[in-house]
Design a protein that fits this description.
121 residues, mainly alpha, 4 helices, elongated, transferase, DAGK, cell membrane, ATP-binding
Length: 121
C-alpha cells in the first residue's frame, strides 16, 4: 500500500509541476514537438533512446529546480543572498540540461529533417 501511495504523491508532484511552472509547460511542449518530429522522421531505436533520455533529463531538472525553489522559500522566506544563489544554481542546472537536449535534438533530428526539407523542394 505504501508503494501505491508513493506513486500517488509522485503524480501529485507532476501535476503541481505542470500546473504552477510555466517553464515546465514550455519544456513539455518542446518534448511533444520532438516526439512528433521523431515519429514523422522515423527515428531509429538509438535515436529514440537519446531523445527520451533528453526529455526525461530536462523534465527531471525542472522538477528538481522547483523542489529547491519551494524548499528555499520555506526555510528562507526573507531575502537571503545564499537562498538566491541556491535558486540561481538550480535554474542553471535546468538551463544546462536544456542546452544539452537542444544540441542532441539538433544532432539527432537535424540531418533527417534537412533531408526531408531538401527532398521537398
Amino acid at each position: 500500500m505504501k508503494r501505491l501511495l508513493s506513486f500517488k504523491y509522485a503524480f501529485q508532484g507532476l501535476g503541481d509541476l505542470f500546473r504552477t511552472q510555466p517553464n515546465a509547460r514550455i519544456h513539455l511542449a518542446i518534448a511533444v514537438l520532438a516526439i512528433a518530429l521523431g515519429i514523422w522522421l522515423g527515428l531509429t531505436t538509438t535515436e529514440w533512446a537519446l531523445i527520451c533520455l533528453c526529455i526525461g533529463w530536462v523534465l527531471a531538472a525542472e522538477a528538481f529546480n522547483t523542489a529547491i525553489e519551494y524548499l528555499t522559500d520555506l526555510v528562507s522566506p526573507d531575502f537571503n543572498v545564499l537562498a538566491g544563489k541556491a535558486k540561481d544554481a538550480a535554474a542553471a542546472a535546468v538551463l544546462l540540461s536544456a542546452m544539452g537536449a537542444a544540441l542532441t535534438g539538433l544532432w539527432v533530428l537535424g540531418p533527417p529533417l534537412w533531408r526531408k526539407v531538401v527532398l521537398f523542394f
